[in-house]
Batch of 3 targets.
Target 1
Amino acid sequence: MKVVIIGGGAAGTVAAFELRKLNKDISITILEKGKHTEYSHCSLPYVIEGTVEKLSDIVLFHEDDYVKEDVDLKLDTEAVEVDDKLKTITYKNIGSGKKGKISYDVLVLAHGAHPFIPPIKDIEKSQYMTFTTYDDVEYLQKNIRSFDNAIIIGGGFIGVELGWGLIEQKKKVTIIERQPHILPGMFDQDMCSIVQKILEDKGMKVKTDVSIDDIQDLKLTSRDKLIVSTGIHVKDHFAKSLGLKFNRGIVVNDKMQSKKDIYCIGDCIEISKQDPKTKKSESITSWLGTSAVRQAQIAANNILNSSNPKKQLRFWTNNTAISRIGETVFGATGMTTEAAARKGIKTASARLKAYTRSEHCLDKKDIIIKLIADMKGYVLGAQIIGHEEVAGRLDLVSMAIQYKMKLSDLCSIDYCYNPSVAPIFEPLSVVADICQRKIGVLNARKK
Ligand SMILES: Cc1cc2nc3c(=O)[nH]c(=O)nc-3n(C[C@H](O)[C@H](O)[C@H](O)COP(=O)(O)OP(=O)(O)OC[C@H]3O[C@@H](n4cnc5c(N)ncnc54)[C@H](O)[C@@H]3O)c2cc1C
């Protein structure tokens, strides 16, 4: 079997290595238009912050790792055309301009997405930059002395992480967000305002509910650097010519398959899934490294077990995400109250500020947990801000959502305790109990 993967980022690289782990004999080729082997995009803001020593440290696999695994990695090589009838890909070496052809039995599209640039009048005259790649960091590092002020359009987690990194580099930073609050999609307003205060206390200006329509509105000076961080969009490189469904990304089923012998993974996809009970179709995107990696593992498994549906794996996500600014860690999983309201789902929520260790321990830290559930008590989401032990609690809630657990389940878990490590009353259990009681009161009022 010959598998060709277009795109050697997180999804493409993990798919190649997973395929090799599962099968020693098949031929695996990656076509990657960039010059870099796989590196950690998620570490880019921390290189700017200075908590990663040097940019090259974020490279996760080097060329000899691919050779060792017998994966033919063609760097600087762009796939330009796919002919699914002949099962061939035409590619071009970017440096030499030379074209070549390669055949495949199974094709994996893992070509990622591009930064989304909002339609702002004359934006191209502003010498703006985006912040998504190794080369972007290299550019910023080289030009760090050329500006004093960074204006970041977009208050998602990448804009926030980058803003923090630039403050650490002694820049004056302003974040401009079109939505009523930063981190839209991840956090509700009440939790966002806590993060926003931390940013403002550090000296960052945060302007929300502000839409820039014309670049003149920003009154940029020669000492300003404009950085656009307004999300991503997927370009339809091959889907149309291959007859694949394309919406916000290439549409795949939850087995990562778009068509027989074509699998698509990572940022370039949208997953369409039917609820077995209600038969309602839901479509999700998950532009996260965690999802790209799991999708790659699932695709590799399913490619090799394509003739055995019983062995096929399926993907689902709560879009569990976490970030850090300075000493503060914040993350979320599942639905926000705002997202649930948009879907017409009635929710109750509870928020709790607690300690991560017993109150008498000097090194205890604050943690703020917001838990969201539907009116039957099923856990829908959580948002957590703290200084330690945020990830583990988020993952626990993610599991509760995935396995359709109720608040009562979160209350009855056998949590560990030691005063210097974890409090006797686990904050997650306490907030679940508060939320449960709230639901009881709200439901009683309705009767
Ligand atoms: C600054 C930043 C911070 C992030 N932080 C986090 C985080 O903390 N946690 C988290 O879970 N996620 C995070 N993410 C998101 C995560 O990095 C992405 O979801 C993940 O990298 C997507 O992987 P991918 O393989 O789909 O795409 P990519 O990694 O973008 O790889 C796609 C590759 O395809 C190549 N390509 C495109 N077209 C062609 C073609 N025609 N021929 C050949 N090659 C082609 C591209 O050059 C690229 O290398 C972050 C992203 C960024 C930018």
Target 2
Amino acid sequence: MAYLRRAATALILIMQLFTLSNAHNITKILAKDPDFSTFNHYLSATHLADEINRRQTITVLAVDNSAMNSILSKGYSLYTIRNILSLHVLVDYFGAKKLHQITDGSTSTASMFQSTGSATGTSGYVNITDIKGGKVAFGVQEDDSRLTAHYVKSIFEKAYNISVLHISQVLTSPEAEAPTASPSDLILTAILEKQGCKAFSDMLKSTGADKTFQDTVDGGLTVFCPSDSAVGKFAPKFKALSAANKTALVLYHGMPVYQSLQMLRSGNGAVNTLATEGNNKFDFTVQNDGEDVTLETDVVTAKIMGTLKDQEPLIIYKVDKVLLPREIYKAVKAAAPAPKSSKHKPKNAEADEDADGPSADAPGDDDGEVADDKNGAIHVMVSRSSVFVLAIVCLCFGVLLM
Ligand SMILES: *[C@@H]1O[C@H](CO)[C@@H](O)[C@H](O)[C@H]1NC(C)=O
Ligand SMILES: *[C@@H]1O[C@H](CO)[C@@H](O)[C@H](O)[C@H]1NC(C)=O
Ligand SMILES: *[C@@H]1O[C@H](CO)[C@@H](O)[C@H](O)[C@H]1NC(C)=O
Ligand SMILES: *[C@@H]1O[C@H](CO)[C@@H](O)[C@H](O)[C@H]1NC(C)=O
């Protein structure tokens, strides 16, 4: 009986895994046809692929390698290419069928360029118009839209979640191509200092990690800045670290991808950091706790206190503690079990949560065993026997699917 119940639990777990996992993977979809390899490459390089995979209703207007040359030959920065390509991601579903059945023969639909706020007015809208002979034309919405591209074929469709359509030309506009204040003009340490993160900024500079952070901005960067008081309290311990550990600890406060609060909220899983390298995982778990978002390193649990700066591709959060990676502190972690901390404390207890040492916040229920079981997608706590059952159920699933 017990086993049956476990199997049922495992089955539910698997089903959750299915629904939680990304429903589609644009990189994989486009990889099937080498004609789209350049477009595909730039979707990944600009991190638009992550955005596409995250959305549940989306249309991607793909162009082939020769069409991509028209913008690549202009030597644009990656950031400008991101703006242009984000015009090719429509936040609505257009399968080939819907394309040919547009009410009144013409529609105007928002692209990701519009929805990410980079566009002004309607310059992030795409005009889709049925023209003579069953052709469908595309253009960027303007007073007098020039419909510069046309529909070629459908590459992939999964109604009504993702549709990938081949169009003849790159869609672009002066606004998308405009030299924007390139994010590399965003000087991270200067921003941090202005936003009340002087102490953390000093840590970045003293270790030289500021360069790594800065180099990452273009492709997307999320920074977790511990409050000045948290850094102050941690200072003696920081001083005691080796140079390499210091750098790793500082790098641990950045993620090489732009993650809005909403994205963090919907994520709930292990995330890599700038310190992640090969076997040195240096990851932590993002966890929702009601309205709060916490970062659990297994050594400390820090809470996001607010957003200091959100200018895609850069976002900076303030956190209440220095993040201590288990790769550096697990060994010296106090073994004394502490009552389940942080979660159910009244809000005004925050002051003492500012404490940041491992001993001050040793989560007694979060031991090595659990840490090793983390599967990278969700924080599942399963005993060894249910892992076994899970494996068997997986096998059965596999057989069924065959
Ligand atoms: C999507 O597919 C590509 C290529 O198959 C793979 O490298 C990548 O890890 C996948 N991404 C996700 C989020 O599964
Ligand atoms: C799309 O562009 C065409 C050509 O400029 C125009 O006639 C049509 O009204 C536009 N459609 C919409 C919905 O604005
Ligand atoms: C497809 O989209 C619908 C909403 O449009 C959503 O409810 C559903 O979960 C999506 N399916 C997958 C597999 O993501
Ligand atoms: C720092 O790094 C060394 C070697 O890389 C490691 O052995 C040590 O445990 C680390 N942690 C601390 C707290 O110094």
Target 3
Amino acid sequence: METPSIELIKRQFFQMVPIRLFNWGIGDSKELSSFYAKPEVQDEFYEKIINDAIFTKFPCSPNYTLNFFKAYIKILESQQENEISENILEYYLQLMMETKRVSGPPTEACFKTYYLDENCNSWITIKEDQRLISQGTTGLRTWEASLNIAEYFKSHPETIQNKSVLELGSGVGFLGLYCSHAGAKQVIMTDYSEHVLTGLENNIRLNCQQCPNASSSRLSWEDLEESEVANHQFDLVIGTDVTYDAAIIPVLVRVFKHFLVRGSEVILAATIRNQQTFDQLGISTDEEGIKVENLPLCQEGQFFYREEIAQVVILKLSLEASQ
Ligand SMILES: C[S@@+](CC[C@H](N)C(=O)[O-])C[C@H]1O[C@@H](n2cnc3c(N)ncnc32)[C@H](O)[C@@H]1O
């Protein structure tokens, strides 16, 4: 839990943290509503959130925005000390008029901005889908495992700084872009779906100023030798939420081994949704003579991920001594 601040709200809102999981800060509801209703805090909220240049250019989903503002206005209404500022009320009324209500889960793609420091001075903006699976792929949104491992890298920056990094199954690209921003020497993000690669390339362009040394390349785990990155040397190979299909794990583990043999370090984050699928990772790594070590998990801090929904482990792979 953190003390209430507009930055805490901003980081969650721009990352589209579900309203039911929103952390408004430490304090009982009376203390929190008194804090957010202070005229100077309302002004700060207006300037730093509604009037923010990123929000204007790369908005979150309209329905999410409406739900967020409903929750915020409810907090302001639950106290009697201060009136709601005219700017905020005007914005809220306009939002209500303009937002088309949709029933069921939202389907449109939208922007999420992931702030990379507590004061919201640096960020990565990703265009992503809100559905778990869309257009037949899971690669069009950012998954919890990648936020989890970004938190790990944030507290262990030496893992990525000045390293050449290859990412497998990058999806929309949050993690690779994070590595680039956090000081990796070079980051190549890969995927096999043309559709995913198009979205990935757009996100790389969107963040090219903050992440100048990030690029993408096609890499299908089944056809590693056809990929232009197969013979490159990387200091670090990463992958998040790429171990969800037991049938493909043996192939993926052979890709890990290919790079381990060439001297890369391999770190992945796996989401355990099904124990049998996860066990397959242990079986395949044993068969290939690969040792698996658990790295410590970091508590949610900069990024927001729902531990109660997805159990994530961060694993470091290395060759057994006999290999
Ligand atoms: C669950 S998504 C994870 C995306 C991203 N790493 C994240 O954590 O947000 C899995 C990704 O792996 C990619 N993928 C699946 N099978 C693959 C294969 N055989 N070769 C290359 N990429 C693959 C998918 O296209 C998708 O982008």
